[in-house]
Amino acid sequence: MTDSPEQAKIRVLMVCLGNICRSPTAHAVFHKIICDNKLGSTIQVDSAGTGDWHVGEPPDPRAQQTAASRGYDLSALRARQVSREDFERQDYILAMDEANLQFLRQRSRATDKARLQLLLQYGDSDRVAVPDPYYGGDEGFEEVLDLVEAACTALYAHILASHFPPHTPQS
Ligand code: 4NP
């Protein structure tokens, strides 16, 4: 179904490998920004993994705990794998690292709607990738949140400026 102009939505998909650490964190952080700004029905965010090992599982307990300490609730999220439909329906598919971006690029078609980018393209971090915290310690999950919070704030500003420019009065 095509959205009418009044219902126009911007759809954002956060993507990592397992969809249990980084992308659900980015999902929840961006969701809070949208909701805090009362744009929850105008901008939609979701997350998915390029791998399928954890499909149906909740986010990693360490990701949930670290996010909860900063006010984000990941408990209702469940892992899923990126689908063909995502390429056709999402406006932005944002990968956490180059390997996941490469996976997405190899599966994209010229007719797809989604633009494929790295999340850290947004913001002024000199980092390219959100490092995979799965095999490391708790500090890795704090670093994920630091990087993701800054990038999501910049992404929100970009989407507002690009898709919802302030109304300029006619002279
Ligand atoms: P994520 O982290 O991609 O940030 O969700 C990982 C989760 C699971 C695995 C690797 C990375 N794994 O190998 O199962």
Written account of the structure:
The chain is built from five helices and four strands; from the N terminus they run E-H-E-H-H-E-H-E-H. With 171 residues, the chain is an alpha/beta fold. The protein has one domain: Rossmann fold (3-Layer(aba) Sandwich), CATH 3.40.50.2300. Helix 1 (22-36) links the parallel strand 1 (10-16) and strand 2 (43-49). The longest helix is centred in the last third of the chain and has 26 residues, at 138-163. The termini are far apart. The structure holds 4-nitrophenyl phosphate. 4-nitrophenyl phosphate binds next to loops.
**What is the CATH T-level topology?**
Rossmann fold
The biggest beta sheet reads: 4 strands, parallel
What's the overall geometry? globular
Radius of gyration: 16 Å
For this structure, what is the CATH class? Answer: Alpha Beta
Which ligands, by name, code or SMILES, are bound? 4-nitrophenyl phosphate
What string, H for helix and E for strand, traces the elements in order? EHEHHEHEH
Instruction: Compute the average pLDDT.
Output: 94
Number of strands: 4
Known CATH architecture: 3-Layer(aba) Sandwich
Note the total helix count: 5
Strand content: 5-15%
The overall number of domains is: 1
Low-confidence stretches: 1-6
Superfamily at the CATH H level? Response regulator
**Side-by-side strand order of the widest sheet:** 2-1-3-4
Considering DSSP H and I runs of 4 or more, what fraction of the residues is helical? 25-40%
